[in-house]
Design brief:
By secondary structure, this protein is an all-alpha fold. It folds into 3 domains: about 150 residues, Serine Threonine Protein Phosphatase 5, Tetratricopeptide repeat, CATH 1.25.40; about 90 residues, Tetratricopeptide repeat domain (Serine Threonine Protein Phosphatase 5, Tetratricopeptide repeat, Alpha Horseshoe); about 120 residues, Serine Threonine Protein Phosphatase 5, Tetratricopeptide repeat (Alpha Horseshoe), CATH 1.25.40.10. It contains 26 helices and no strands. The longest helix has 24 residues. The two termini are about 40 Å apart.
Length: about 500
């Protein structure tokens, strides 16, 4: 089972990694032939793909020996492929990436120290790594990633002040850190290395001093601060910068919504997601579909259960694959149970077993659906889910008052563990730090067959409480203890919060 979970985590992280790096490709680099590329850049960022492609093709006609027009067309189509899952877009990407690669190599044969072409070669290799990974050619993807990094390093060997190249290395440095041990053979085989601290430093350097990939670097920093460091205030700074320039870019809007959701700004996140649906970009239908899914999550958290059901069903109707299908059905089942429709709840619990198990959200949904699908949700389960909603809405006193004594009456050990975690974190938010520690310590007195995440999270909460009151050594110890625990759901989310405090301890 542990090996299976590790494999699932590996697959998920490969996808996350390549998605994480794809924008760094420099699609929107500011080099131009006669202004055509720069105008195409602006159209692409505004998601006017038709106009962008026309301008890039005009650039090709103007200078067919230049790789830049071909390169931009290739990147445009891999972006559309990610947003549409249309295999035809993938084939177009391969065609134009091959033509761009041929022309870049010819120029480098003439001048191996052409730092700009080395940079573009790194970007193109990054795109190809993405394409191969998304089509289940993981080893080829890692080799291309290695070649991409080599090109960025060669550009810096030629000119250490070519700051845009630092961004390309920085993304690999950061993202590859989170590939699990089971997949280290590929990392070792290709010679890739990683260092998250150096990666962040390089990205910040590129952001401050680079000239070609400012937008891409800004986006990556926003993602890092949200997904890996749980520093939502810093992420918001970068996202505001992006959206001030491109307010209709649905990818940026979606990332902003995710950041706001993690920061429990549900009303603001809802507004961003509705903007995506109003824009309704037909080339990025996957983003539109995911916006529906997130709206379903928000309405559920706000106890607007019928609206939640409607959005999740819209998502299921429009989804292009099985990603989040399990979790959507699980949340629908929960909503129906709360609305006292047991028959529909059981139906969707059974449907919750059929999502994409490469995603931890869907694996979690399947696991919990198997627990409840025979008899439906218990009263205790519904009670805990309602408390979780109050917590997500920042109503910590309600959670505290409801659970402070009631947790002892919860018979299900896993549910009691969740209750104690909710109590502990609510206590922290209410500045009741000794109680937060006491509740978290109670978690360790039991073993959990389903909610295995509660143990590492309780360690994190003790570390967090100790950090707040200035007990740095104790904080560091408990954070290390949390990191030592493996094989549980949503590890990335917990790790990001651990990273947040550890950064503060080290500063």
């Amino acid at each position: 089972m542990q090996q299976k979970n590790t494999l699932i985590r590996t697959k998920q992280l490969i996808k996350k990694t390549v998605f994480f790096v794809f924008i760094i490709s420099g699609l929107f680099a500011q080099g131009s032939i006669n202004g055509l590329l720069s105008r195409g850049v602006n159209s692409a960022y505004n998601l006017d793909f038709t106009n962008a492609e026309q301008l890039f093709h005009k650039a090709i006609e103007t200078d067919p020996d230049s790789p830049l027009g071909f390169y931009h067309v290739a990147q445009l189509h891999i972006w559309i492929y990610l947003g549409s899952k249309d295999p035809g877009e993938y084939l177009i990407f391969l065609k134009y990436s091959d033509m761009a690669l041929e022309r870049i190599k010819k120029l480098l044969d003439k001048n191996p120290k052409d730092e700009l072409m080395l940079y573009y070669l790194g970007n193109l290799r990054t795109l190809r790594a993405l394409a191969f990974a998304m089509n289940d050619s993981a080893l080829d993807a890692f080799w291309e990633a290695k070649n991409a990094r080599n090109s960025f390093e060669e550009a810096l060997d030629v000119n250490p002040e070519f700051y845009d190249a630092y961004g390309g290395i920085g993304v690999f440095d950061y993202s590859l850190t989170y590939i699990p041990g089971m997949f280290r053979w590929a990392i070792n085989l290709t010679g890739l290395s990683s260092d998250p601290n150096r990666g962040l430093k390089y990205l910040l350097t590129s952001y401050k001093k680079g000239k070609l990939n400012k937008i891409e670097t800004t986006y990556h920093l926003a993602r890092i601060y949200t997904e890996y460091l749980a520093d939502y205030d810093s992420a918001a700074v970068y996202l505001r910068e992006l959206l001030s320039k491109y307010p209709k870019n649905t990818l940026f809007l979606y990332q902003n919504a995710l950041t706001l959701m993690k920061d429990k700004e549900l009303d603001k996140a809802e507004s961003e997601l509705n903007k995506i649906l109003r824009i309704d970009n037909k080339k990025l239908i996957v983003v539109n579909s995911l916006a529906r899914f997130r709206l379903g999550e928000i309405y559920f958290a706000k106890n607007q259960f019928q609206k939640s059901i409607n959005e999740f069903k819209n998502f299921l109707e429009k989804s292009k694959d099985f990603d989040f299908v399990g979790m959507a059905n699980f949340k629908i089942a929960l909503a129906y149970a709360i609305l006292d429709d047991k028959e529909m709840s059981i139906k969707h619990l059974n449907d919750a077993k059929s999502g994409n198990l490469d995603l931890f959200e869907d694996a979690y949904a399947k696991n919990r659906a198997e627990k409840y699908s025979d008899n439906g949700f218990s009263d205790d389960a519904l009670f805990i889910f309602k408390m979780n909603n109050y917590f997500d809405n920042g109503k910590y006193k309600i959670v505290y008052d409801s659970l402070a004594t009631e947790f002892k009456n919860i018979k299900d050990i896993d549910l009691r563990g969740v209750a104690l975690v909710l109590l502990s974190e609510s206590s922290i938010n209410m500045k009741k730090y000794p109680e937060a520690v006491s509740f978290a310590e109670l978690v360790s007195s039991n073993e959990y067959s389903k909610e295995k995440w509660v143990k590492p999270y309780s360690k994190y909460l003790i570390g967090r409480a100790n950090f707040i009151v200035g007990e740095d050594k104790s904080a560091a110890k408990f954070l290390d203890d949390a990191e030592d625990l493996n094989n549980y759901d949503f590890k990335d989310r917990i790790q990001s919060q651990i990273n947040n405090i550890k950064r503060k301890l080290n500063n």
